[in-house]
Amino acid sequence: MTLYQQTREFLKRTGRNPNQKLGQHFLIDPHTLQEIAWSAKLTDADSVLEIGAGLGFLTSVLAATAKRVVAIEIDEFLYAELQLKFSQTPHISLIQGDILKQNLANLLNDSPPEHTKIVANLPYYITTPVLWELLKYRQKIGSCVLTMQTEVAERIISSPGNKRYGALSIGISYYAEAEIVHRIPPDQFFPSPQVDSSVLRLQMRDTPQFTVDNEALFFRIVRAAFQSRRKMLRNALLKNGVFISAEVFNTVCDQLAIDPQRRGETLDIAEFAALANGLHQHISE
Description:
- This protein is α/β, with parallel strands linked by helices.
- The chain is 41% helix and 18% strand.
- The strands form two sheets. A seven-stranded mixed beta sheet has the order 4-3-2-5-6-9-7. A two-stranded antiparallel sheet has the order 1-8.
């Protein structure tokens, strides 16, 4: 049977429909599944954490090469199907649960970072929270290959001057190198989503892209700047809880040759890092 036929057979047998609340869209194109696995650059020394295993179509492809696959699935019916399918495959471990409620430190503890990889067809409604969660464990992860809505993938790789450029662009760039490696049209899923999808590859950096004295302040500034992206930078910071006197702000901007009347959306990551360091120095004095 084709993957489409297998999906329809499962739904008919269990009397279910794809769960819209969970954002279920099953990837049914074998070539695309193989492209995702190739993009992960798997070896037989790798451990893979798969988020949203679904009916196990990608799980099977990953397990053909990887040393170990840990597959997480929140849907109890899909999880039961995965248990039936992989009960005789010892190097595949199954977990039922919400990825955002898992202790990833424990799941990622066995292999060195260069052999620890994340592969996922992310439900679109939790893509951004999952990305931020994975970044918390970046020192345990070598790379991620993530299928997501194209609009989100393009936000991540955007640069200043692009309307999609934002806090997520900077957060990902700070910790990882990102590239779109594959595009997936809606008809390769069942049911077909209303949007195009892309496969994004993240290669985690050994160290952040720039040296920042206070990461908490850096990210506060970045988020504040984009929460009011049409305001001049200092006004955006003040409105969103980063309280800096005009004198200090103007002094730091002058030292960095940054026009204080610029909007935050025009600053690149290097300028945000320099601004955060300059402000931190004055705040700490």
